[in-house]
């Protein structure tokens, strides 16, 4: 099929490269692509617009664009059928003191609530549905083309299919033997960087300090690495949670757009 590969469009000196997403294609039932362009620099033209429309029928495209991108580029994307979904913010951890010394001792006492955290070598036996259905503000739940049940299923599947490895870590918090929360991490040893890709606490344990206990455990585990995570700028609860736990530096912001074509 012509869609099962990355596609680069060129017209009037402009170039746009879209990455083919195999898993998303299977999940959404149509060819899916990612336009991850940072600060997209191009000169819009009618030729490029025509090529874009002709090349991407019956597809789903996500565009992640630096928020500093110029209005002409955004106008081009809107005219090509993209719609704003939300604004994604990358937060960097900087306050290691909050997990050291007296703060650490105080945290250890709070651990008396019975929250035990462990790094899992295999991914099995977790309450995938309960943990994967706690998200509400991500780009899938805020897209009116995607039903809530479908968006929940995406995150449930993501957790269920996550395979721990040398670069991918899974931490679980248990209370009374019951899985209360998880964190999934991706490690880039070359860049000395760890990305917190998935932080979930089962609704039953919300507000019990499980998320904080998990995130501080992970910070200690990767103490020699730079740490970042992502959330949505309108997700006030998540922003407060991350800032409270030391993720207080905004590294970058990106405008998220979706395009569902027929």
Q: Assess the beta-strand content as a share of residues.
A: 25-35%
- Which structural class fits the helix and strand makeup? alpha+beta
Report, as a whole number of angstroms, the end-to-end distance: 17 Å
Residue runs with pLDDT of under 50 for 5 or more positions: 100-112
Q: Any chance you could write out the topology, listing elements then pairs?
A:
Elements (H helix, E strand, L loop, with lengths): L6 E5 L2 E7 L1 H7 L3 E7 L7 H10 L4 E7 L4 H9 L3 E10 L8 H10 L4 E6 L7 H5 L15 H13 L7 E8 L2 E11 L4 E9 L8 H12 L4 E7 L3 H9 L4 E12 L2
Structure description:
The chain is built from eight helices and eleven strands. The chain is an alpha+beta fold. Strand 1 (7-11) and strand 2 form a beta hairpin. The chain starts with 6 loop residues before the first strand and ends with a strand.
């Amino acid at each position: 099929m012509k869609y099962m590969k990355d596609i680069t469009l060129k017209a009037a000196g402009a170039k746009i490269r879209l990455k083919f997403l195999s898993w998303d294609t299977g999940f959404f039932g149509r060819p899916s692509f990612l336009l991850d362009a940072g600060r997209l620099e191009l000169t819009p033209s009618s030729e490029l617009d025509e090529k874009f429309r002709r090349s991407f029928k019956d597809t789903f495209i996500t565009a992640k664009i630096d928020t500093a991108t110029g209005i002409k580029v955004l106008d081009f994307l809107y005219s090509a059928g993209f719609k704003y979904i939300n604004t994604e913010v990358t937060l960097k951890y900087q306050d290691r003191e909050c997990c050291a010394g007296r703060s650490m001792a105080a945290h250890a006492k709070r651990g008396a609530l019975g929250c035990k955290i462990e790094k899992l070598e295999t991914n099995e036996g977790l309450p995938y549905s309960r943990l994967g259905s706690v998200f509400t503000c991500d780009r899938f739940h805020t897209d009116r083309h995607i039903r809530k049940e479908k968006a929940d299923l995406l995150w449930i599947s993501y957790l269920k299919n996550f395979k721990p490895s040398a670069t991918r870590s899974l931490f679980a918090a248990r209370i009374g033997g019951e899985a209360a929360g998880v964190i999934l991490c991706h490690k880039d040893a070359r860049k000395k960087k760890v990305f917190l890709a998935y932080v979930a606490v089962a609704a039953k344990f919300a507000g019990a300090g499980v998320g904080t206990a998990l995130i501080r455990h992970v910070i200690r585990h990767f103490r020699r690495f730079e740490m970042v995570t992502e959330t949505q700028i309108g997700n006030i609860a998540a922003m407060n949670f991350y800032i409270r736990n030391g993720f207080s530096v905004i590294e970058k912001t990106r405008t998220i757009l979706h395009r569902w074509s027929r």
